[in-house]
Write a structure and sequence with these properties.
This protein is mainly beta and about 130 residues long. The chain contains no helices and eleven strands. Strands 2, 4, 5, 6, 9, 10 and 11 form a seven-stranded mixed beta sheet that branches. A four-stranded antiparallel beta sheet has the order 1-3-8-7, with no helix packed on it. It is globular and about 40 Å long. About 35% of the residues are buried.
Length: about 130
């Protein structure tokens, strides 16, 4: 089975930075896309960013583009999300996920991912 563990969340002031990590164990699924999603209380889960682990292509939600950077280390089955210029509206539980199928695509829909981590809380104070 695939296990995903997020880390790096915490409390930060507006304008600050955090780096999230997602480590995968078990089945490698090394050619499947990986992504970050977030969910705030009372809101639907929202796409944040994704990376194509075949070619390294990336995709970002408009709300985070230019502030967040997604990257991956395929050899270690680890994905990162560098978050800069954080805003209070970035406050949410952040989840990492692995896509259901392998390939060069970089999906943004949660339904296209079938392995999920437990989430890590990010809180940005104003």
């Amino acid at each position: 089975q695939v296990q995903l563990v997020e880390s790096g969340g915490g409390l930060v002031q507006a304008g600050g930075s955090l780096r999230l990590s997602c480590a995968a164990s078990g089945r490698a699924l090394s050619t499947h896309a990986m992504g970050w999603f977030r969910q705030a209380p009372g809101k639907e889960r929202e796409f944040v960013a994704a990376v194509n682990r075949v070619f390294g292509d990336t995709r970002y939600a408009d709300s985070v583009k230019g502030r967040f950077t997604i990257s991956r280390d395929n050899a270690r089955n680890t994905m990162y999300l560098q978050m800069n210029s954080l805003k209070p509206e970035d406050t949410a539980v952040y989840y990492c996920a692995v896509a259901a199928v392998r390939g060069s695509h970089t999906p943004a829909a949660a339904a296209e991912y079938n392995y999920w981590g437990q989430g890590t809380q990010v809180t940005v104070s104003s």
